[in-house]
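Final report, Chapter 2: Outcomes

The project's central promise was a pipeline that accepts a single protein chain and returns its three-dimensional structure in a standardized token representation, suitable for archiving and comparison. That pipeline is now operational. To close this chapter, we reproduce one record exactly as it appears in the project archive, with the input sequence first and the structure output second.
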Amino acid sequence: MKLTILTADGFAALTLLATCFSGLSLAAPTVEGLALEKRALPVLLGSAKSFGALSGTALTSNGATAITGAGGVGNAGVWPGTAITGFPPGTVSGVLARGTVLAQNGKSGCLTAYNNALSIPATRALPSSNLGGITLTPGVYTFPTSAVTLTGTLTLNAGGDARKQFIFKATTTFTAAALSRIVLTNNAQACNVYFVVGSSATIGAGAQLQGNIIAYTAIGAGNAASNKGTWCALNAAVTLINNSLVAQAGNCPT
């Protein structure tokens, strides 16, 4: 093996290069081109908060789905896709946004929130991937397995501070079983609950959820499931069946 002897001039050149590049850092991983730099709370939905449901490809409803808003209108939209079916008989108190600037801005808000939530370091690693039957205080939560479930009731206790946030990071899927519930106590707010899902989210029939679900692929809801917050499927469809979705557009203290 040939060794290269570094001369004094060569060493000086390397020293100069090191000085020039000492302030630079390697680029962070990205999702759709956005750097996952370490961020801090709060996570914000931006324009997406006025949407009950938002999809990257298609929004489909069967039956009497109703999308409304607390403290504002309840929109539903698709971007960059344009396919929306099932309205009517489904109803929207705001706008059905098919590939419009409104939908684009909403999708951008979802993507920004998704990336920001991913970049915030966890404050607690839960011992179980089933959220049912427990009470949690504000924080950023991870799980021992990639798939996260909710069976039964999850209680979220904000300790009296309505600005506090609950962020749950599911590496692959999130599944809420039929009749599962999220209960908010001590001033916890639905707008400050986030499920950040690495693939798809499935909501069982009759589930009563409160919070924002941002899934990298699809979101599918069973018959008569309900939610207070925004459901956003970044790269696939949102499928609804007789659901009640209430956007939290003007109802968040954060």
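Archive annotation: Residues 51-247 form one domain.
This record, like all others produced under the grant, will remain available to the consortium after the project formally closes.
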